[in-house]
Every structure is written in structure tokens, then in C-alpha cells.
UniProtKB/TrEMBL annotation:
<feature type="coiled-coil region">
    <location>
        <begin position="145"/>
        <end position="217"/>
    </location>
</feature>
<feature type="domain" description="SH3">
    <location>
        <begin position="282"/>
        <end position="342"/>
    </location>
</feature>
<dbReference type="GO" id="GO:0005737">
    <property type="term" value="C:cytoplasm"/>
</dbReference>
<dbReference type="InterPro" id="IPR027267">
    <property type="entry name" value="AH/BAR_dom_sf"/>
</dbReference>
<keyword id="KW-0175">Coiled coil</keyword>
<dbReference type="InterPro" id="IPR004148">
    <property type="entry name" value="BAR_dom"/>
</dbReference>
<dbReference type="InterPro" id="IPR036028">
    <property type="entry name" value="SH3-like_dom_sf"/>
</dbReference>
<protein>
    <submittedName>
        <fullName>Endophilin-B1 isoform X1</fullName>
    </submittedName>
</protein>
<dbReference type="InterPro" id="IPR001452">
    <property type="entry name" value="SH3_domain"/>
</dbReference>
<dbReference type="Pfam" id="PF03114">
    <property type="entry name" value="BAR"/>
</dbReference>
<dbReference type="InterPro" id="IPR050384">
    <property type="entry name" value="Endophilin_SH3RF"/>
</dbReference>
<comment type="similarity">
    <text>Belongs to the endophilin family.</text>
</comment>
<keyword id="KW-0728">SH3 domain</keyword>
<dbReference type="GO" id="GO:0061024">
    <property type="term" value="P:membrane organization"/>
</dbReference>
<dbReference type="Pfam" id="PF14604">
    <property type="entry name" value="SH3_9"/>
</dbReference>
<dbReference type="GO" id="GO:0016020">
    <property type="term" value="C:membrane"/>
</dbReference>
<feature type="domain" description="BAR">
    <location>
        <begin position="24"/>
        <end position="270"/>
    </location>
</feature>
């Protein structure tokens, strides 16, 4: 393997000079060239953008994919540019178990039928969740990650080069000061101090030129980071729209489930209605069943203990009220019921 010895020695010498310069600056024995105020401001803003983007990205990934192992797996497949195998959500797994349990209890039984419906709903919610996670990744997570791994990574690299150029510049300034201090003295190397000063000043001009050019490159990149905020804002709007759509779909799905459960016979569930303190003609009130009641004719309604139903007072009848459970409706003895309001009490007609 060919090795460019001169280049290796030159690079090693440059690294050594930078280390010496940085050490002297840390100890306060050497001056440090400061960046102009505008460039410093841009650099601070870029660092803040990088820091907060990284935090937001980590939080987003943790919220959308709570399992750390799954996040690592997703990142691995993304890096090797392969499609990740389909993975069910926790809601879908729960829905599967509910459906299996419902089938085991029997779909003709109220509880088994309810388990089936709730399980199917959980599976649907899980699919909605997966779609939302996919949309959020496309519209927000991927652009943020691309920014960090592309634009921000380039900025960090160029900033490091600028720091090296600054150290080289300050090292050259020290050489010029040292050469000037040697004017009129005998040089140990045998080279006249004037020649050494001319050489040091030439190196300083080159270092200053390289530093200024690199500072302009960094400034342009940092200004680009500032303009990237507009792109991030658009991505944020898209994420909020995806999240609003996700919650709307979940809400609609749960409302459908409530209606389906309300229509099941023999179940205690009924969609919640706003309670009132009294039952009057035509007004509905929630009531809890105190003990089982079996209908003796078609006009009555069978209910079970702890079932919650809607009730309506029957004018002129102090012993019965009209009970409503889903699509079922019939008379129920008032003594079997307890009104549900801020102060639970039994019917007292």
C-alpha cells in the first residue's frame, strides 16, 4: 500500500498545532479568533433546532411505537431498505382474544355476543391506529429524521472544519507574533528573522483566506437551517390533520359499537344519557336494577341485577315504570329499581 509520507507528516503537524493552540486557549495563554455576531447567532439557532428536533423525534417515536424493541426493529429494516414484516397492534391482539372468548362462551349468549362485537371493534381500532402511525411517520417523522441525517449532519461537519480553520488561523497568528518578537535577534535555525516573519505572514494570509471561505460556507448552510423551519411547520400541520382524522375515526367506531351493544338483548349496557333529578311524564332517567325480574307477559320487560336501563314514569301507575333496554321495552316494577343521579335513591311513587 502506497503511503504519501509528506502528506502524512503535514497532516500530523497540523493536528499537533491545533491541539497546542486549543490547549493554550483553554489555559488562557493564547488569543482566540471570535466568529462574527451574525454567524454566532445562526450557529446557536441551528444547535437549538438540532437539539429540539432530536427530542421531538424521540418523543414522537416513543408515543407511536411504545415498545423499544419494535423501534429498533423498524430502524434496522429502514437502514437496510427492506420492508418490515406486518406487525399487529396491541388492540388487534386483544380483539383476537375477545373474539375467541366470545366464540367459546357462545355467540348466542349475551356476554359472548358482546365480546365478539367489542373484539371486532378493537381490531378495527387497531387497524386505524396502524394507519395513523404510518401516516405520522410519512408526514412528520421521516422529514425530521431526513433533516437530522442530511442537512444537519452536513452543517455539523462543516462547523467542525471551520473550527479547525480557526485553530490554524490562530496558530499562524501566534507564529507571526513570535517571528516579530525575534526581529533583531540571532535565529537558532540560522534563518534570518525577516525570512521567518515573511514566511509566517504568508501562511497567515493563506489561513485567513481559508477561514473566511469556510465561514461563508457555514453561514450559507446555517441560513438554510433557518429556512427549514417553514418545511417543518408544514409537516407539523399534516401531522395534526392525521391525528385529528385518527381520533375522529376512533370516535365514530366507538359510537357504532355503543349502538350495537345497546341493541343486544339480555345485556346491561345502554348508551349514557344525561341524568335528571326527577322522572316526569315523557322524561327518561337512568336506573339500576336492584334484583332480577322475569317478565310474566309480553307487556313486561325482563331485567337482571345491576343492569342499567332507561325508565319513563307511567301516568297514574305508582307500581310500574316503562323500562327501555336497547330495542327492548316493557313494564318493570318500580321497587326493583334505583334511580341513578347525584343522590342514588329507590323509586317512591
Amino acid at each position: 500500500m502506497d503511503i504519501n509520507v509528506k502528506k502524512f507528516v503535514k497532516d500530523a503537524g497540523a493536528v499537533f498545532s491545533r491541539v497546542v493552540q486549543l490547549t493554550e486557549e483553554t489555559l488562557g495563554t493564547s488569543e482566540k479568533t471570535e466568529l462574527d455576531a451574525h454567524l454566532e447567532h445562526l450557529a446557536d439557532r441551528a444547535n437549538a433546532t438540532k437539539t429540539w428536533t432530536e427530542k421531538i423525534l424521540r418523543n414522537m417515536e416513543a408515543v407511536l411505537t411504545p415498545n423499544p424493541g419494535n423501534r429498533v426493529e423498524d430502524y434496522f429494516y429502514e437502514k437496510i431498505d427492506k420492508k418490515r414484516p406486518s406487525r399487529l397492534t396491541n388492540l388487534e391482539y386483544m380483539g383476537m382474544d375477545m373474539i375467541e372468548a366470545g366464540n367459546n362462551f357462545g355467540p348466542g349468549v349475551a356476554y359472548g355476543s358482546a365480546l365478539n362485537k367489542v373484539g371486532q371493534c378493537q381490531q378495527k381500532l387497531g387497524q386505524i391506529e396502524r394507519n395513523f402511525i404510518k401516516d405520522a411517520a410519512i408526514c412528520y417523522i421521516q422529514p425530521l429524521r431526513k433533516f437530522l441525517e442530511g442537512e444537519m449532519k452536513t452543517v455539523t461537519k462543516e462547523m467542525a472544519i471551520l473550527e479547525n480553520k480557526r485553530l490554524d488561523l490562530d496558530s499562524c497568528k501566534n507564529k507571526v507574533r513570535k517571528a516579530r518578537s525575534m526581529l533583531g535577534q540571532q535565529s537558532e535555525s540560522g534563518v534570518s528573522p525577516e525570512v521567518l516573519l515573511d514566511q509566517a505572514e504568508r501562511e497567515l494570509r493563506i489561513a485567513q483566506s481559508e477561514f473566511d471561505r469556510q465561514a461563508e460556507i457555514v453561514k450559507l448552510l446555517l441560513e438554510g437551517v433557518q429556512s427549514s423551519h417553514a418545511g417543518h411547520l408544514r409537516c407539523l400541520h399534516e401531522f395534526v390533520e392525521a391525528q385529528a382524522r385518527y381520533y375522529a375515526q376512533c370516535h365514530a367506531t366507538m359510537q357504532d359499537l355503543q349502538r350495537e351493544l345497546a341493541g343486544l338483548s339480555g345485556g346491561p349496557y345502554h348508551p349514557t344519557t344525561a341524568p335528571t333529578s326527577n322522572v316526569t311524564d315523557g322524561d327518561e332517567q337512568l336506573a339500576r336494577v336492584l334484583c332480577d325480574f322475569t317478565a310474566s307477559n309480553s307487556e313486561e320487560l325482563s331485567v337482571v341485577k345491576d343492569e342499567v336501563i332507561n325508565v319513563i314514569e307511567i301516568p297514574g301507575d305508582d307500581d310500574y315504570v316503562t323500562g327501555i333496554s336497547g330495542t327492548r321495552r316493557g313494564k318493570v316494577p318500580a321497587v326493583y329499581l334505583e334511580l341513578i343521579d347525584s343522590t342514588p335513591r329507590k323509586f317512591n311513587y
